Amino acid sequence: MARYLVPSEYAKRSILPNQIATRFHSQIFRNVVFACKMAGDVPWHVVNLVSSTQSRADERHHSFTDPTGDVRHYLHADRQHCFTYRTWEDMHTKLIQHDSELSDLDCYLRGKSAHYLPAFQLE
Question: How many Å apart are CA 21 and CA 104, to the nearest integer?
Fold first, then answer.
């Protein structure tokens, strides 16, 4: 953790290391630190975009569950809004499915597979 946090003054302004919980999502932490550092004094936002089929496929592993509470717990109060958890399926339903200009993307998502199964459960 120190490897990522110590060199970044911007991350130190957003992250409370002593508030990191038992469930630590290391890749998300690295992304948050990277976003802080790259943004500098400009507002930043990290979105964890996953397939809802993954979260249901393996509930024993917390890396597939919604990490919002864990991540926001170590963010300063004024930075907790800077992390969001979303699913491809929700994005598809709200933005892609009914937009004819995104039909190629719709087709791609409907045909996408993971481990020889459909990657997304789309309507």
Answer: 41
